[in-house]
Amino acid sequence: MVIGRKSHVTPSPVHTAPDSNSIRIRPGNTTSIETPAHKIARSALPPEDYRAMQKSSDTDVRITGLPLAENASIRSVVMSLENYRLRLPSRLPAADIWGIRRFKGREFVDVAPGEIVQVRLDISSGQYRATLASEQFASGPRLVLDRRTMIWGAEQLSILPEVGNVMSSRPDLDPSGPKPSIEKNVPPGPGKLYEGRDDIFERRASQTVKIVARGLKQFTPSDSASLRAELSATRLIFSDANHGIAMNYVEAAGIFQGYFGEHHALVKERLTDCLSRGEALSKEYQGPWGLDKFVGVEFDQDRRAWMYSMDFHGRFFISLNHLQAGDFAAVLGHEMLHTNRVNRFTSVGPGALDFFYLDARMGKALDRPVPVYDIAEQGVSEIIMQGGLTLAYLDGFTSDHSSFTTGVRDSLGLPGRLEVRTAVDLFNAHSAVRTWMAANNADSIIYAAKSLQALHRGRTADSQLLSSLLNN
To answer: Are residues 438 and 385 in contact, defined by beta-carbon separation less than 8 angstroms?
Structure first.
């Protein structure tokens, strides 16, 4: 499916019972993996601990250097950190979920049990470097975090060929190691850390597509510029939608009902939260930590973009053959809504799912005529929220309906598995089920955001025009 803003619904052939094996380009796809890599999650420091930390004086925490004598196992980890290592004070605040300890404007990381180093963020590389308290700029080695242990270690060029997840833009640093085919497009400069190279998610993707770019620096200049522009447009979708809700336009009620059904008032808070999270995420994906979270694949017939819901790196796999088709913003917004915690990000996604998709071209497969709106998906959603969903419509996108049947089962609290026809009947019979599933459905949320954006921009333009007429 090529997602775009349409002024009307283009007539399409009648779809009675689409072939369940037919292939359609979908707005996005969330794929989970049954055996994800083990992750260690750590809760952030409670607010009261931060307040207590702020009230304490510098004398409450004393940081002293460590003697050079140490066992061999520690030396192998912190060999290049000899001049930066400090003994861990008992009252230094606990590390946050990124492994950073913060106190009085300074940041520290653990490099071994009971040992820390002070660090500063190197803006040029986007990585933390060891530093001395007396230094204005960090002089120590760059550090990388082992999420399994939450221990930081020095990045040493001598072991780069063994790491396998460092995308260096300088072949001279690793003359013997394999080089990605697209690496010649990367300009000279310090390498960026691409996390997860050849992991279970990349291997899963590589079964059907060829990975040709890891991180935006490895995209062609044209594709990189297009993706950056679409990212900015994604942020505007969420931002304008939030403004539209805040303005409390009368027309917004119709949008809410069209996308979330008659019980939409019960999920308005959920929608507002999703839009706020989406806006925050779209900012972070444009930031220094977001640049390496885009993976380019050479060709995919079915999907414009997708991500794996259990991928802690929060990577988006982008089908380059569809990137120039236009209006990728809704696609990216759809994928962002699937995320939960993404490493190195402050924001947390809403974890939306794919219960069903919204596609005006499949409107004929619904059981009643689809009304026409500027955002065509609103009309499709309106029929679905009225209980007009059909199995033929669902089959037009995929033959795997496990997500939909599980959503119906869970919302009704039913045991066991549901047959898909039974799930469709229950979905159509219970308006509360439709509202709950739509409020957790990525397509419903992103297209509701687009409709709210169109409303807000239209009303803003009207207001500006009226103001101009009055002033003249």
So the answer is: yes
Structure tokens at 88: 């861990």
Paired tokens of 411: 């919302």
pLDDT in tens, 107-155: 999 988 889 999 988 755 567 888 988 777 777 888 888 877 889 888 7
pLDDT, one tens digit per residue, over 171-210 is 333 333 444 444 433 433 333 568 888 889 999 999 999 9
Residues 298/320, Cβ–Cβ less than 8 Å: yes
Q: Is 136 helix (H, G, I), strand (E, B) or coil?
A: coil
Give all strands of the β-sheet with 316-319 in edge-to-edge order.
29-31, 305-308, 316-319, 294-297, 211-214
The three-class DSSP label of residue 112 is strand
DSSP β-ladder status, 85-87 and 143-146? unpaired
- CA atoms of 300 and 305, how far apart (whole Å): 9
- Nearest Cα residue to 170 out of 120, 223, 121, 217: 217
Host H or E run for residue 122: strand 115-122
| 155 to 125, 200, 296, 305: CA distances (angstroms) | 13, 23, 26, 32
SS3 per-residue string spanning 439-468:
HCEHHHHHHHHHHHHHHHHHHHHHHHHHHH
